[in-house]
């Protein structure tokens, strides 16, 4: 579960591109915690919805910068950000978490799709400051829809913009092959919508490159949190002395916990954001996410929106309602 919640105030709001706004968040009680490239925060909106946004400003700043594209077909979180978060608005945010950390290498290829540029921007700034070899391919529907174009102009020889309406669909296999041919040890990072991630995975595998580092801004297509596949019912206990809940075959742990009235954070319900990460006090977990690391799983963590019990009962570190 998300910890380290604090209040932040919107101190700046600007238009970044068509349908994209940039927000600067400042700590109400002083400087916000430090962070590293690739990190994101949870933002608890006035309606109670929780959404995750990558930090995209300078890592040296004690304010946070995020950029949000409105999604007319989404569940309303991005619309609420655009409509409700104005200067002087106060929101609750989490401490930064980083599941997309930048690892040291000698050469980098960054491939961004649309708003997926946000976690890659601080990475570009970091590797450039170190004088390392890198290139960025930045795809989008149109130039007007691509935020941070102006900021990237200073790296013109290393950055390739790829608007679909001008150049067609990005040549992912060709880009990856060329990068690997030039530097077989190249570290490849990508962030964007599902089709881009899937294409990058296939291209990296075909090129024989090192494992792809990626962050998916949409859930993997095979995930279905509301109807888990191949499951049976089990029990969940809230704390060592709390109530015992029945979790049905077609019910997630998260749904059972919410139905019981417990107060937990959640957002994606698809095992991709990490907001519902919970400590397991007892029991064996059937992990069904692709987000938690082996170390986190060994540390008794689980995502209750998709993962289940491999036995009869889980005891979770969730306060009883």
What does this protein structure show overall?
The protein is an alpha/beta fold. It folds into three domains: 6-93, Elongation Factor Tu (Ef-tu), domain 3, CATH 2.40.30; 107-216, Rossmann fold (3-Layer(aba) Sandwich), CATH 3.40.50.80; 234-316, Ubiquitin-like (UB roll) (Roll). It is 21% helix and 30% strand. The chain has eight helices and 18 strands. Strands 4-3-6-1-2-5 form a six-stranded antiparallel sheet, covered by helices on one side. The longest helix has 14 residues, at 194-207. The two termini are 15 Å apart. One of its GO terms (molecular function) is methyltransferase activity. It holds the Pfam family NAD_binding_1. Its cofactor is FAD. Its EC number is 1.-.-.-. InterPro entries: 2Fe-2S_ferredoxin-like_sf, 2Fe-2S_ferredoxin-type, 2Fe2S_fd_BS, Beta-grasp_dom_sf, FAD-bd_FR_type, FNR_nucleotide-bd, MRET, OxRdtase_FAD/NAD-bd.
Intertermini distance? 15 Å
Q: Whole-number radius of gyration?
A: 21 Å
What's the CATH class of the largest domain, please? Alpha Beta
Per the principal axes of the C-alpha atoms, what is the gross shape? globular
Query: What's the SSE pattern?
Result: EEEEEHEEHEHEHHEHEEEHEEHEEE
CATH architecture of the largest domain: 3-Layer(aba) Sandwich
> How many separate domains?
3
CATH superfamily of the largest domain: Nucleotide-binding domain of ferredoxin-NADP reductase (FNR) module
What is the overall number of helices?
8
Q: Assign a percent range to the helix content.
A: 10-25%
EC number: 1.-.-.-
GO biological process, one term: methylation
InterPro entries: 2Fe-2S_ferredoxin-like_sf, 2Fe-2S_ferredoxin-type, 2Fe2S_fd_BS, Beta-grasp_dom_sf, FAD-bd_FR_type, FNR_nucleotide-bd, MRET, OxRdtase_FAD/NAD-bd
GO molecular function: 2 iron, 2 sulfur cluster binding; metal ion binding; methyltransferase activity; oxidoreductase activity
């Amino acid at each position: 579960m998300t910890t380290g919640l604090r209040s932040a105030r919107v101190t700046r709001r600007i238009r970044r591109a068509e349908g994209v706004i940039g927000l600067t968040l400042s700590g109400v009680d002083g400087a916000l915690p430090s962070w590293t490239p690739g990190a994101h925060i949870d933002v608890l909106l006035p309606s109670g919805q929780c959404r995750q946004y990558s930090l995209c400003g300078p890592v040296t700043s004690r304010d946070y910068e995020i950029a949000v594209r409105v999604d007319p077909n989404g569940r309303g979180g991005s619309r609420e950000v655009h409509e409700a978060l104005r200067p002087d608005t106060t929101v609750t945010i989490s401490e930064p978490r980083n599941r997309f950390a930048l690892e040291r290498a000698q050469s980098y290829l960054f491939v961004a799709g649309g708003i997926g540029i946000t976690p890659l921007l601080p990475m570009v700034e970091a590797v450039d400051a170190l004088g390392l070899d890198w290139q960025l391919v930045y795809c989008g529907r149109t130039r007007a829809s691509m935020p941070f174009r102006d900021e990237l102009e200073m790296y013109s020889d290393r950055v390739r913009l790829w608007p679909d309406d001008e150049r067609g669909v990005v040549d992912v296999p060709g880009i990856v092959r060329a990068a690997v041919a030039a530097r077989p040890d190249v570290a490849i990072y990508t962030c964007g919508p599902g089709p881009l991630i899937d294409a990058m995975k296939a291209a990296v595998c075909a090129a024989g490159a090192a494992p792809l580092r990626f962050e998916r801004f949409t859930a993997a297509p095979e995930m279905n949190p509301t109807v888990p596949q191949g499951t049976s019912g089990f029990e969940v206990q809230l704390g060592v002395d709390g109530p015992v809940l029945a979790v049905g075959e077609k019910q997630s742990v998260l749904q059972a916990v919410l139905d019981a009235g417990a107060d937990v954070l959640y957002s994606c319900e698809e095992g991709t954001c990490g907001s519902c990460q919970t400590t397991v006090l007892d029991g064996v977990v059937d992990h069904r996410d692709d987000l938690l690391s082996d170390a986190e799983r060994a540390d008794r963590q689980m995502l209750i929106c998709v993962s289940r019990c491999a036995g009869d009962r889980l005891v979770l570190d969730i306060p009883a309602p």
